[in-house]
UniProtKB/TrEMBL annotation:
The keyword Metal-binding applies. It comes from the Bacteria. CDD domains: CuRO_1_CueO_FtsP, CuRO_2_CueO_FtsP, CuRO_3_CueO_FtsP. PANTHER family: BILIRUBIN OXIDASE, CUPREDOXIN SUPERFAMILY PROTEIN. Residues 59-169, 212-291, 363-471 form the Plastocyanin-like domain. This is Multicopper oxidase family protein. InterPro entries: Cu-oxidase-like_N, Cu-oxidase_2nd, Cu-oxidase_C, Cu-oxidase_fam, Cu_oxidase_Cu_BS, Cupredoxin.
């Protein structure tokens, strides 16, 4: 792949030309960043918000003048931004208009196991699935994507993914909240295109570690440009890529504030110049602009397959993500809130149960995914410590249906950017991460949740296990095999 160093985007010149991505060579004019439409159905007479999600094939122009076969939700590529509030009853009417089976998983959303959309909730071609639950968690930027065992990477690559924003009274009013204006989702995905402009699917399988595309799209836009009209903008960053880890910041090195991790606000804004995102992770940041600013959101760094994945930038994988042009006059920013969330951290009680997960090349504790096997049985309402030890190249670890706090990384207290509620965490090579997890009340001895590496190739190869959450005291009544699965 052609690598390039970033250019300081000092003027408009940097936006129109020259500031291209490592890609197929042609330097096309920038396109306005696509903002996924927001979907927030009104409450019906029963007080339920009924979402309708149609998964369908389509055609999308990524490279100028060329079309690619893609998949999308309610459109040809990607999906709407779903939005609901704590306390809402939601119904998701998912209609699979794709020619093969898939699932739709609500990543970062606290849901009962049967509504989770993991590999067991298969929706056949032209089938329908209608889970329903009550939103009950702090404000968060969650997302959704398919999860069919062995095919997740491909289904996301083709375009099924979107954001799922959860509002809750805990979010301070001072945060920017005008969707698409000063509150903007940024879905970051690397892709490789063939010369005819189509998505190169064979490229997904060329590297045993995982796929790194030649081009980075944001919200499905190739060479995107965002014009902002506000002096402070909230970006909700999502790494929906297969295996690339991004170190997101700006070409001019400006500092900004991290306000939220995967599933919740930090205690207070944290000033940073880069945020690290491994696949599946999210971050919310507040960025200040001056009138007339021209700057590019980029990623500096190296990829963890070659290194300890410690996030140190060495210029080996520098990528432009999004050019930004601020208007000549900007809506003024309010004051920066000094406090965000009262207490985002989960404390394990003394004597909390510790479970250990050893990450191998494509296995966890020496096992690969077996849809019929229950790997862990957890008592409902408990808080446990999960210790994740990586004896292989870089991986991350995602747990369904919960939020967790990072207790330590290699024995040291977590850095500031990991001090918020998380559902996915990067585990450096030869490193150990310990997290505190509280398991919700929802119990079902035969409907498992998943834990897995979110590097999609690893996940598809079976780097995944299953746990059930059951009433305390009934753990030994859980069957070791799920009924009906060979
Ligand atoms: Cu983002 Cu098991 O998923
Ligand atoms: Cu992995």
């Amino acid at each position: 792949m052609k690598r390039r160093r970033f250019l300081a985007a000092a003027g408009l010149a940097g936006l129109g030309t020259g500031c291209g991505q490592a890609s197929s060579g042609v330097s096309a004019p920038r396109k306005p960043l696509w903002i996924p439409p927001m979907l927030r159905p009104r409450r019906d007479v029963d007080g339920v918000r009924r979402f309708q999600l149609n998964l369908r094939p389509g055609r999308t122009e990524f490279l100028p003048g060329k079309r690619a076969a893609t998949w999308g939700v309610n459109g040809p590529h990607l999906g709407p931004t779903l939005r609901a509030s704590r306390g809402d009853r939601v119904e998701m009417r998912v209609i699979n208009g794709l020619p093969e089976s898939t699932t739709l998983h609500w990543h970062g959303v606290r849901v009962p196991a049967e509504a989770d959309g993991g590999p067991h909730q298969i929706i056949g071609p032209y089938g329908m699935w209608v889970p329903e639950w009550t939103i009950d968690q702090p404000a968060a930027s969650a997302w959704y994507h398919p999860h069919p065992h062995g095919r997740t990477e491909l289904h996301i690559y083709r375009g099924i993914a979107g954001m799922f924003l959860i509002d809750a009274p805990d979010a301070p009013d001072a945060l920017p909240r005008a969707y698409g204006v000063d509150d903007i989702p940024l879905i970051i995905q690397d892709r490789t295109f063939r010369a005819d402009g189509s998505l190169d699917e064979a490229a997904l399988y060329q590297d045993r570690f995982g796929f790194e595309g030649q081009t980075v799209l944001v919200n499905g836009t190739y060479r995107p440009l965002l014009r902002v009209g506000a002096a402070r903008v909230r970006f909700r960053l999502l790494n929906a890529s297969s295996a690339r880890v991004y170190q997101v910041g700006f070409t001019d090195g400006r500092r900004f504030h991290l306000i939220a991790t995967d599933v919740g606000l930090l205690a207070a804004p944290l000033e940073v110049d880069r945020v690290q995102l491994s696949p599946g992770e999210r971050a919310e940041v507040l960025v200040d602009f001056a009138a007339g600013d021209r700057v590019t959101l980029n990623s500096l760094g190296e990829q963890p397959k070659n290194t300890a994945g410690d996030g140190k930038a060495d210029g080996k994988d520098d990528l432009d993500l999004l050019a930004i042009a601020a208007a000549g006059r900007l809506t003024r920013a309010g004051r920066m809130p000094s406090r965000l969330s009262a207490d985002p951290m989960i404390e394990p009680p003394p004597g909390a149960r510790v479970r250990t997960f050893v990450l191998g090349h494509h296995d966890i504790n020496g096992k690969i995914m077996d849809m019929g096997r229950i790997d862990e049985v957890v008592p409902a309402g408990s808080t446990e410590i999960w210790e994740i030890r990586n004896e292989s190249f870089a991986h991350n670890f995602h747990i369904h249906g919960v939020a967790f706090s990072v207790l330590d990384v290699n024995g040291a207290p977590p850095p500031g950017h990991l001090r918020g509620l998380k559902d996915t965490v990067l585990v450096p090579r030869a490193g150990t991460v310990r997290v505190a997890v509280t398991f919700s009340e929802w119990s079902d001895p035969v409907r498992p949740y998943m834990f897995h590496c979110h590097f999609l190739r690893h996940e598809d190869l079976g780097m995944m296990g299953q746990f059930v959450v059951v009433e305390a005291g009934t753990e030994d009544r859980v069957p070791t095999r799920l009924p009906g699965i060979p």
